[in-house]
Design brief:
3 helices; 111 residues; binds iron/sulfur cluster; alpha+beta
Length: 111
């Protein structure tokens, strides 16, 4: 099974809690984590709408919370602590089916 993380970035608030949860649970330096949140915007487009998107990017530091002390009740720490509930980890093939359900989603496949 290929493990994937599905991100519904339309509703990511940019709170960075996923980053902090990963770094703390894995005892990482302040500038490193298995997930890092990037921000594009905010700037106004010609049509008057605003570009303002937060995007969690999974890095090679991510070990899928494989260590027994990392995960919380079986859920990866980033998933568990995301209050907007926009992260899901699971079988990448199953998660891929969700991509057509709504726009502004992204699927990572993890090594
Ligand atoms: S799955 Fe675990 S190791 Fe990977 S980014 Fe989330 S908290 Fe970090
Ligand atoms: S914890 Fe959730 S809402 Fe907050 S930045 Fe991470 S993915 Fe986005």
């Amino acid at each position: 099974m290929t493990v994937g993380i599905l991100v519904d970035y339309e509703f990511c608030t940019g709170c960075h809690t996923c980053e902090i949860a990963c770094a703390v649970s894995h005892d990482l330096p302040n500038d490193r984590a298995g997930v890092v949140v990037h921000h594009e915007g905010a700037w106004e487009m010609a049509n008057g709408k605003w570009q303002d998107t937060y995007l969690p990017v999974f890095t090679d530091v991510c070990d899928q919370c494989a260590g027994a002390s990392a995960a919380h009740d079986g859920a990866p720490m980033c998933v568990h602590h995301c209050q907007a509930d926009v992260l899901r980890m699971g079988d990448a093939e199953e998660l891929a089916k969700e991509l057509v359900r709504k726009p502004k989603q992204l699927l990572y496949t993890l090594a």
